[in-house]
Request: fold
Amino acid sequence: MKNLYVKKKECCGCGACVDVCRKDAVRMVIDREGFRYPKIDGGLCVDCGRCEDVCPIKKQSPKKEGSRQYFAVQAKDENVRYASSSGGMFPILAEYVFRQQGVVFGAAYDKNMRVVHREIRSREELDSVKRTKYVQSSMKGTYRKIETRLKEEQWVLFCGTPCQAEGLRLYLKQPYPRLILADLVCYGVPSPGIWGDYVKHLEEKHGGKMTDFSFRDKRMRDSGHTCAYAIDGQEYFGSLYADEYCRMYFTNHILRPSCHDCKFCTVERNSDITIGDFWGIEKVKPEIDDGMGTSLVILHTEKARDIWEAVRDEVSWFACEERDALQPRLTDPTEAAKSRGLFMTSYRMLSFSQLLRLHKVLALGRALLKKLKK
Reply:
């Protein structure tokens, strides 16, 4: 039976191989680290090769040539900006698509707090896909739905990680004038399995059902460095860096193996638009750094430039140079924690509470080592 990868770093988990298989011979299964990987049913597979043709890692596609444009962006509507993770560029793009009677695909929580890509058709639904989710989303069925909408000649905005966006581009095989492909400046995707365990941990701790989690809450005007969640109507919030799950994320213990070898950590991409936080805005233009977030926007295509002309009056913005916009995840992948192997082995053996205690020890050791090296 054919395998789509040999080493774990050779699969980004985008799921394009599942949707492209017309025999439904490919399904995603959860590995021992809580990540989804494709598994082929040898009894159904006809060896057509489509699954390999849509793989963003196997398919080394040439990047688009031409000049890119870089902007720092803040939505003029303070409500839009407040409800967004950075400066509000994504909802501005979504509103543009809604005016064309189109649809938007983005990451949202389902009723069990799993992160899935979903289709929305109105601004009333937009809140569900607005904010950053530090969890790898499930794309099951999304590629097929997008293809259907495009063949119906609807406008479609897709926003996701760069590997998901590239998987979609390869899946569609042809350009569509009404598709806006937006990818993110991505730190790396954490384990959906560990996220699910963390949700259960908080539900047990507070004795209720979680209904929302905001990784980038702005109530403290601290550039989204607060996180908040709701359980049975009760809200809890605190520092992003004090949250146990976020600490595991930012110490690089729970990222997907492929993220540490990512080929999309560059400004050269096949998407139309790249969006993310404009980290370092306080150095480039400190007078606009008010703690409420600024979007970095990179335009790659003529389509993107046309859309920018249509929406730029809705935002405060300034153009900048590539050197001003560059940040670590646009130059190099995130390095794995040296203790990642130990941590993930322990994840399979310990209770979740014990795992959290282990991470505290590992994080303290990491901090101490940094101090000793100075």
